Amino acid sequence: MAAWNRLGKAGIAVAMVLVLVVIGLVGFSVTRDRADSLPPLPAVPSATPRDLSTPISVQVIKRIGESACKPGDGGVPGPGNGGDWCYFLDEGFVVTRANLVDLYEDMDGELAVTVRLQPADREPFAAWSAQAVGNQIAIRVADRVLEAPHVETPLSGDSVDFSTLSEAETRDLYRQLWE
Fold first, then answer.
1. What is the spatial distance between Cα 138 and Cα 147, in angstroms, rounded to a whole number?
2. Kind and range of the H or E element at 21?
3. pLDDT at 18 > cutoff 90
4. For range 65-84, the mean pLDDT
5. Sequence-ordered list of residues with C-beta below 8 angstroms from that of 158, at least 6 positions apart, any chain
6. Alpha carbon of 9 to those of 4, 16, 142, 144, 178: distances in Å?
């Protein structure tokens, strides 16, 4: 009888552990999916792709001067700590056409811009980003660096997203690219 009591208690303990493991895995999966997934891209409208009003250039940063650019030094102005810094860039990938440029709310509820790339540009952009892994890149529009993220993993090539600008800058960028 004592053996059956121990076996019954062990069975209950194993069942409780399994339930906790399943609950933990489901919770981890939901949390991971929320944290790792990008916000869904807006549906692509039936309009035909078109040229961007202003091209987007994505380039690896060679170095950053922590002061404003001087005429003739070959740098591109962009955001710095307390003012403009001067970015010196390698050749990169230029986007001149898009399927869509749209405003959306990112995961933090902030306004962002997504530029949905043409199918012909997606694979070359993904290949370029794979070579840029481990580097800081500049996303440049109209001779100004707007964002300078580090590339940790290759990008999918589906889109270029701007999500660190103020709401006013985001709306201006949308108009600058698409209107």
1. 6
2. helix 2-36
3. no
4. 94
5. 41, 116, 117, 122
6. 8, 11, 70, 68, 67
Question: Which single residue is written with the structure tokens 């060679």?
Answer: 62
Give the per-residue pLDDT at 157: 86
Cβ proximity of 157 and 115 under 8 Å: no
How far, in Å, are 16, 98, 141 from residue 118 at the CA level? Answer: 52, 5, 18
What is the CATH topology of the domain spanning 50-178? Gyrase A; domain 2 (3.30.1360)
Distance between CA atoms of residues 116 and 97, nearest Å? 9
Average pLDDT over residues 148-153: 93
> Do 44 and 100 meet the contact criterion of CB atoms below 8 Å apart?
yes
